[in-house]
Design brief:
CATH architecture: 7 Propeller
Number of helices: 2
Radius of gyration: 19 Å
Number of strands: 30
Structural class: mainly beta
CATH superfamily: YVTN repeat-like/Quinoprotein amine dehydrogenase
Number of domains: 1
Strand content: 35-45%
CATH topology: Methylamine Dehydrogenase, Chain H
Strand order of the largest sheet: 1-7-6-5-4
CATH class: Mainly Beta
Largest sheet: 5 strands, antiparallel
Length: 402
Amino acid sequence: MRAMRILTPALVATLAIFYVASAEIPRSGPHSELRLGTQSPVAADDVFWSVQTSGLDTNLRGVSAAYLGNAIAGQPGDVFGVRSIVIWVCGSNGVILVSYDLGKTWERRHVRGGDSLDFRSIVAFDGKTARVMSSGEGEKSRIYETKDGGETWKLEFTGEQPAFFLDALVCGAECYALSDPVDGKFVILATHHYKDWKELPSDGMPAALPGEGAFAASGTSLALGADGAIYFGTGGAAAARVFHSTNSGKTWTVTNVPMAVGNASSGIFSLALVGNAGVIAVGGDYKDPTLPFRVAAYSLDHGKTWQLAAQQPGGYRSAVASLYGSALAVGSNGEDISDDLGAHWKHIGALDLNAAFVLDIHNAWAVGAKGTIARLINHKEYSIQNSVAQEGSARESEHWRP
């Protein structure tokens, strides 16, 4: 399970060819600036990708974005459009990048002593504050925080036991992180008032199956809902399962999900919450990424019961994100979108991507192999008008500190 999480999944021949400028990230200092031209949009219909960077010496795994400042009251049209945005991304070889101009230019940030770390999750709070998580056995699993835009990073947590392996980091009213099983049970870390990472008591955590673990491919196997709800997905065992807590991790229930299982490389890789009670799981087998079978399932009752998607994505998918009445899934051989809470998926691109983050209806990014950063160009017309305001309000409360 360990080697599987550190090795990059085998690359797949893409279905389309993109003209992409190549460059190396300067390593001379924390504010080295990367300038790469935005590329022509690729894919089809009213949702497609614009590649902003590629050809970099890193496999990007985490992406997050946040607003700078407050919305301007009384502005006509979409208030999201009158706010500045910061984007943070992270990946292998200790790479952390930040952009303040919607991805036109990127600046490199350095964690002291962290150039060999494999960063899998990043959470943006604003232009100055972010948390980043690295994956690896024992002490290679770490959580850092910056409060000065990445000039300096404080080490907040380091794994001590060899079996400890961080898979995901997410922040809401508090921050939570997920580790593979230690002494037969998954480990949930949590902050208290955004400080002092502690392991939650394991009494209410069901035992892990033999070989069971979570996947760190996109750092999104852990998801937060409202009123203390926490979900995480697993694989690598005889069953793919979703663990669900309704009380901030004090007690848990666990449910089997009918997705690809049977070996260490298959299972649930990512979860997203959609609508009032929907949960979408994506994954598959990363060693056989073109197989379009049992890679997506959905629940309409908070994860109590699950169904396979009637129309599956085009292969293994490492991440899924809610997209205002729709859902976006990305993977090593392409991207798909669902407009019906995960029941049917439509192919929208053929980039090699690992993770995605949706900030609002107009602003979403995904990252992947060879330093690829792509912006989602979204011209869809959404029938659920209230979803924009509702989901935007939820993001405010989830990603900004009290």
